[in-house]
Amino acid sequence: MDYISSHKNKSVRYPDRITLIRGNHESRQITQVYGFYDECLRKYGSITVWRYCTEIFDYLSLSAIIDGKIFCVHGGLSPSIQTLDQIRTIDRKQEVPHDGPMCDLLWSDPEDTQGWGVSPRGAGYLFGSDVVAQFNAANDIDMICRAHQLVMEGYKWHFNETVLTVWSAPNYCYSSRMLGIVKNGN
Fold first, then answer.
1. Residue of 186, 119, 117 lying closest to 149 (CA atoms)
2. Tens digits of per-residue pLDDT, 21-80?
3. Could you tell me if 112 and 157 lie in one domain?
4. Which residues of 5-35 are buried (b: 16+ CB within 10 A; e: fewer)?
5. Is the Cα torsion angle 133, 134, 135, 139 positive or negative in sign?
6. What residue numbers bound the domain in which 152 lies?
7. Record's SUPFAM superfamilies (predicted)?
8. Number of domains the chain contains
9. Residue 178: is it exposed, middle or buried by C-beta count within 10 angstroms (0-12/13-18/19+)?
10. Are 15 and 56 in contact (CB under 8 A)?
11. Cβ count near 102 (within 10 Å)
């Protein structure tokens, strides 16, 4: 809850510099599994705050573009999406579906392979370097910046630095053995 408040306040204060992107945990179903629902109930004595937060989740952006060249997304790519314009047409004001383009953007992961693969997560896809090259070329972007996967050093490059995975939760699942990455400054 503190994280949501802090980051929402920053995005309101600096709308030209901070965009909150929806991830797979910003869903009603996942928040009930991973503790956010229980935290709201414990802190506030009812589920009203949880309901308001999950309604806000429905309005978060599915992606963002930095300087016209860096595509930011929580998970990854979708075989149903070839252009950024297609992302703009997705009705994001809903619970995260179990499949389809919106689900893929939040759940997919890069994999050292070619083409598309079945994700072991049960949602989204695995995508290879050729998929990234095609998407980046079609949209005139240089790289994809994403999260969604724990990386022990706080960040990890994929596919000759065309995909960057960043991790900013070093205490995820109460482990302090991993690093997080946070950019502080302008």
1. 119
2. 999 999 999 999 999 999 999 999 999 999 999 999 999 999 999 999 999 999 999 999
3. yes
4. eeeeeeeeeeeeeeebbbbbbbbbebbeeee
5. positive
6. 63-186
7. Metallo-dependent phosphatases (SSF56300)
8. 2
9. middle
10. no
11. 21
- Whether residue 69 is found in the same domain as residue 137: yes
Three-state DSSP at 95 gives: coil
Alpha carbon 122 to its chain's center:
17
pLDDT tens-digit map of 140-167: 999 999 999 999 888 999 999 999 999 8
111 with 184, same domain?
yes
Cα separation, 131 vs 79, whole angstroms: 9
Q: What token pair was written down for 70?
A: 């860096």
Structure tokens at 75: 């998970």
CA–CA dist 50, 32 (Å, integer):
10
First-to-last alpha carbon distance for the chain, in angstroms, is: 25
Q: What are phi and psi of 107, to 5 degrees?
A: -120, -15
Q: 48-65: b or e for each residue (b if 16 or more CB lie within 10 Å)?
A: ebbeebbeebbebebbee
Do 45 and 78 have their domain in common?
A: no
**CA 78 from centroid of its chain's CA atoms:** 13
**Active site amino acids:** 25
